[in-house]
Design a protein that fits this description.
278 residues; alpha/beta; Rossmann fold; disordered N terminus; binds adenosine-5'-triphosphate
Length: 278
């Protein structure tokens, strides 16, 4: 990891969104909060790690980070120390129980929840240094369309929007997708519907969202924005149980319906962003 702090120069670093996205980076984001981004990020990382990929999850929800709580990890050195120059990037990367690496924001990041040029440059420097070392980097972002969230998403080659079937979550997902299409000129956005009640719900919801987008959103190229349905994760009481115990669902209850759905999601993500070497 010696080159971690010496990423290639990126001229775009100090300008606004959109930036040139970095490869193999998936931003896990949402319109509404509390829909399952952190749960999906952590467990998807475990599922991808189990399939042999080198995975890192970055807690990009700078102001309200809680990946540490979900993983029951409380490291002494965090992203905060890297931002303030108190520690090197490699010192802040730790191993999570699921066989992947994590970079936790830690408390004290609230001051970074505003997108100043310094935050932007630090973020970009850290990301550029990390990417070459992993097969896939997942960004567990905050909800909504704040500057920091949009900036974090702009660094990703792929966006995975998490939504639940609730109407409030769907209208917020629509707003987020619309902003990503216009500001970041995205032509495809991946969608996972979490906490579904019935088989097939997520696909029907994605089709409905697509129809609204087709009517009201045009991309710069003139082509319609394409939503890619990556799967559904059923509402499953095991998820809450695992979170209450601060354990990874994929490790403690790999056979439960939500864990099986995450394993399927990992296969789809692998096919698109982290193909295995033949
Ligand atoms: N498939 C599921 N089945 C049942 N409960 C779920 C499921 N997914 C998520 N939850 C519940 O939703 C809660 C919120 O999940 P999580 O913290 O991952 O959301 P988030 O989108 O990261 O929230 P925030 O926007 O605050 O970062 C979990 O603690 C869990 O109780
Ligand atoms: Mg979260």
């Amino acid at each position: 990891m010696s080159d971690v702090l010496n990423p290639p120069e990126t001229a775009e670093g100090s300008t606004g969104v959109p930036l040139k996205p970095l490869g193999k980076v998936v931003a896990v984001t949402s319109g509404k909060g509390g829909v399952g981004k952190t749960f999906v990020s952590a467990n998807l990382a475990a599922a991808l790690a189990k399939r042999g990929h080198r995975v890192l999850v970055l807690d990009a929800d700078l102001g309200l980070a809680n990946l540490d709580v979900v993983l029951n990890l409380y490291p002494k050195i965090t992203l905060h120390d890297v931002f303030t120059g108190k520690a090197k990037l490699e010192e802040a990367i730790i191993r999570a129980p699921g066989g992947f690496s994590v970079l936790l924001a830690g408390s004290g990041m609230v001051e970074y929840s505003r997108l100043t040029p310094e935050v932007r440059d630090d973020f970009l420097r850290i990301m550029s240094g990390l990417v070459p070392h992993y097969d896939v980097v997942l960004l567990d972002t905050g909800a909504g369309i704040s500057d920091v969230v949009l900036f974090a998403v702009s660094l990703a080659s792929e966006v995975l929007v998490v939504a639940t079937p609730e109407p409030t979550s769907l209208t917020d997902a629509y707003a987020t997708i619309k902003v990503l299409a216009s500001q970041q000129k995205r032509s495809t956005i991946r969608v996972v519907i979490n906490q579904t009640a019935r088989l097939g719900d997520g696909r029907a919801i994605t089709t409905q969202l697509q129809q609204v987008l087709d009517r009201f959103v045009t991309t710069e190229s003139g082509k319609p924005l394409k939503l890619l349905h990556m799967g559904d994760i059923p509402a499953d009481p095991s998820v809450r149980q695992a979170i209450m115990r601060r354990q990874l669902l994929m490790q403690t209850m790999p056979g439960c319906p939500a864990a099986l759905a995450i394993a399927q999601l990992a296969v789809k993500i692998e096919e698109t962003v982290a193909p295995r070497a033949a």
